Amino acid sequence: MERTLIKDLFNNPGTGGQEITVCGWVRTVRDSKSIGFIELNDGSSFKNLQIVFDTELENFTEIAKLGVGSSISVTGKVVLTPEARQPLEVHAQTIRVEGASLPTYPLQKKRHTLEYLRTIAHLRPRTNTIGAALRVRSVAAYAIHKFFQERGFVYVHTPIITGSDAEGAGEMFRLTTLDLQNPPRLEDGSIDFSKDFFGKSVNLTVSGQLEGEAMAMAFGQIYTFGPTFRAENSNTPRHAAEFWMIEPEIAFADLNDDMELARDMIKYVLKYVMDNCPDELEFFNKFIDKGLLERLNGVVNSEFDHLTYTEAIKILEKHKDKFEYPVFWGCDLQTEHERFLTEQVCKKPVFVTDYPKEIKAFYMRLNDDGKTVAAMDLLVPGVGEIIGGSQREERLDILSKRIDELGMRKEDYAWYLDLRRFGGTRHCGFGLGFERLIMYITGISNIRDVIPFPRTAGSAEF
Amino acid sequence: MERTLIKDLFNNPGTGGQEITVCGWVRTVRDSKSIGFIELNDGSSFKNLQIVFDTELENFTEIAKLGVGSSISVTGKVVLTPEARQPLEVHAQTIRVEGASLPTYPLQKKRHTLEYLRTIAHLRPRTNTIGAALRVRSVAAYAIHKFFQERGFVYVHTPIITGSDAEGAGEMFRLTTLDLQNPPRLEDGSIDFSKDFFGKSVNLTVSGQLEGEAMAMAFGQIYTFGPTFRAENSNTPRHAAEFWMIEPEIAFADLNDDMELARDMIKYVLKYVMDNCPDELEFFNKFIDKGLLERLNGVVNSEFDHLTYTEAIKILEKHKDKFEYPVFWGCDLQTEHERFLTEQVCKKPVFVTDYPKEIKAFYMRLNDDGKTVAAMDLLVPGVGEIIGGSQREERLDILSKRIDELGMRKEDYAWYLDLRRFGGTRHCGFGLGFERLIMYITGISNIRDVIPFPRTAGSAEF
Fold first, then answer.
1. Coiled-coil ranges per the record (chains A, B) (predicted)?
2. Per mean pLDDT, which range of A145-149, A169-173, B160-164 is the poorest?
3. In this structure, are residues A384 and A190 in contact, taking their beta carbons and an 8 Å threshold?
4. Which has the least CB within 10 A, A226, B194, B378, B380?
């Protein structure tokens, strides 16, 4: 018999009486002499399915003694229970034990701390919290693909292994196949990377943006969605060494188009997750973050505000006693400043645009004032910055001058400058850290709890 | 005015007469004294749009002289041309030059070899062949997500950075942030990797399968889709150091379920690409691989065959004079053997199952004969193996014994063995190399031409 997913059963309960087979893991078993109840979870749904069994089962005693975490296949009849807390249950005709769970199973029925669960990352997706977080992660990833594909964007896999440092910033991981104990050396004693796998020294990418720009100059609208790496030795709840990033890039477009795209994408993804993971979000709203649903609804339904950096600084300066970090024109905004703007001043998501060029990357388009660049950050309540983007400098002379000013080597950017020589256009894009988005949607405050097997400074287990 | 994509215009041409704006890159310009024609491509479609312009344009002379590759915005009226080769054209009211293209533009109108195009990977997506290949790549990637999500699979991001070697095989890239010139050393002179970023030596993943199994034991049905790495120093048209892989894993399932899933997925993806990239496939069928469409249709419409390895060997032994490599029970199948089976013997896709355990990975489920394992490879005409999968060994004692036999360290697999201790189930999965799939769908014979910026031994440019 075909297996029925518990999610599909709850979504289409039918009229009752049909015979089905469900397979899953036992969350609890309780029994009296002649009847027993199992809470069964198959991972397709947040909800457990109640299985009722009785002494008609040949293996009643075995089933009644099943350990938490055991896997079973149940064939039985669907019974609608409109008066009960759960709309239906299954009365078992046969229950087959697929795999017993030893009494040492670490997920016995009690609350576990998130810290403890990280030590059993191979088992923790079976818990309510991590299971729900990773289902939301999957649905949100699909929503992102759906959003861009429906608009005709081309999905691009930019390289993970790279010889360049896209942002001119960020600590990188070096990749090598050399024998490090005994590396080949040049005459001056330095390591001869021309003998390495790629014939030179290479790193893991920190951003696919520059390559994404090349693709946007062919396809008009592209997006990337892939892993990105930072070797920053910072042990915070918001930083991982390996995380996924979404980076769209659009041609024939300016900063206003960029903000529209970011707004539409965020609203689309939030709405899609709210429509497709209602049980998960209700759980997070109840147990993790009481204001969650209200906040998400707020974002989906509100207009987004817009301040220039210069306006934002003027506002912040009036409240400078509220902040730990000093506020002045030219300073980088700290999370406390960002949250104040979006939570206290605007009370909704807000784009802050036109930052001083000194605090932004070399490729951002210089504004006519000669001091600021066409950058935009999207700030949202509860988090601060969630998206950072910009219009890119498409003017060859200005971009070349900027590269010189910053002491970068123009020959390293020859192909990037080519994009400005051969049919370059106005264009822009942004980056969205996928884990930050999932933290925002779930209310989970540690990035380690929204990644199946997190990689952070000092930790690469499993 | 909103920009219209050329793809959308061809799909919904309307009644003609409507005013629109299109933006794109000039493929050709020709003009007589008073009228000119531009072939415009915006990357959304394989097709070019014909722009007609005349001396009513203020900048007629400038436009007539435009270099190939220049980017322009055109506002004008749609004119239906049912008699002409193209169903419609646009009569320009204004043409704005977004970015001129210098005369040194490498993609002048003539044929370029694929080898040459690889040297200008930042510009080659603007060509017919590479543009079409990367659009197919994007659509196929989406089809894969759509297929699994519609069936309720959870998309899982397994780690890229790993302390383990999943298959016990495959050369790996080492990752480090140590100063290689002057690494910290232990007393015996060896490098002290406990000082490295993760506190130990780590590599880039060769497969997400083991982690995928942990996730399948929570969600029942999962898939991965992410980059994978092999540091094999092989310079062939079919190997890249960085490639993307899809690895589904299903619980409560055996090898028959695995084959069904593989078959359904392949058929779904091929059909989706045929429905959504008809122009691209027609182009490939005409210029790259004349049997392409017939072969793809064959796969979508045929039943798939099934042979055991033992049956396959018996067939191959009868034709042993046809092969370079010897055939005997226990040998690994070479591409020439695989292609013979699917092209000459079965004349359709065929699953070969139940291989000798010695030539397969440690985690594959031992059959009752004690000699073979529940492995399956899918062979398709024109390629040979495109998918490799297996039922996994869920029995703790047999798996432990196999790990011992192979001299592997059980403590390295402690968490993997846990999955067999706590509610383990029958389960299986497979791996599909995404680039191999794109080569198969497009007929392109070199993996470097289906990856935006390929990474191969000796080459990590851009």
1. none
2. A169-173
3. no
4. B194
Q: How far apart are the first and last CA of chain B?
A: 35
B-chain residue closest to A25, CA distance? B423
Closest partner CB to A422 (pick from B8, B69, B418): B69
How does pLDDT run across B376-405, given as a tens digit for each residue? 999 998 889 999 999 999 999 999 999 999
Residue A418 · residue B119 · CB < 8 Å: no
Instruction: Give the domain ranges of chain B.
Output: 6-99, 126-167+206-449, 171-205
pLDDT of residue B243: 97
Angle (CA) B352-B355-B356 rounded to 5° is 165
In three-state secondary structure terms, B330 is: coil
A131: its two tokens: 């299971």
> How far is CA B25 from each of CA A410, A416, B67, rounded to the nearest angstrom?
26, 18, 10
Q: Are A146 and B149 in contact (CB under 8 A)?
A: no
Angle between helices B396-405 and B414-421 (to 10 degrees): 160
> Domain B126-167+206-449: which topology?
BirA Bifunctional Protein; domain 2 (3.30.930)
Question: Beta strand B174-176 with B202-204: parallel, antiparallel or unpaired?
Answer: antiparallel
CB half-sphere exposure, A460, CA atoms < 13 A: 23
Burial of A57 (0-12, 13-18, 19+ CB in 10 A): middle
Q: How many residues comprise chain A?
A: 462
pTM across the whole model: 0.97
Asked whether A201 and A161 are in contact (CB, 8 A), the reply is: no
| Termini Cα distance of chain A | 35
**Residue A219 pLDDT greater than 80, yes or no:** yes
* Nearest beta carbon to residue B197 from set A101, A231, A418: A231
Task: Mention every residue, 6+ apart, whose C-beta is less than 8 A from residue A250.
Answer: A216, A220, A221, A257, A258, A261, A427, A428, A429
Closest-CA distance, A71 to chain B, in angstroms, reads 5
Please name the residue that has the structure tokens 């490879």.
B377
Tokens of A447: 């990035």
What are the phi and psi torsion angles at B400 (to 5°)? -60, -45
Give the type of residue at B125. P
CB contact (8 A) between residue A142 and residue B162:
no
Q: Are B317 and B337 in contact (CB under 8 A)?
A: no
Give the tens place of pLDDT for each residue, B227-239: 999 998 888 999 9
Domain range B6-99, its CATH number among 3.30.360.10, 2.40.50.140, 2.30.40.10, 3.30.230.80: 2.40.50.140
Q: What are phi and psi of A392, to 5 degrees?
A: -95, 150
Which residues of B fall within a CB distance of 8 Å from A200? 460
> Is the torsion defined by CA of B416, B420, B422, B426 positive or negative?
positive
Q: Residues A237-247: pLDDT tens digits?
A: 999 999 999 99
User: How far does Cα A388 stand from its chain's mean position?
Assistant: 15
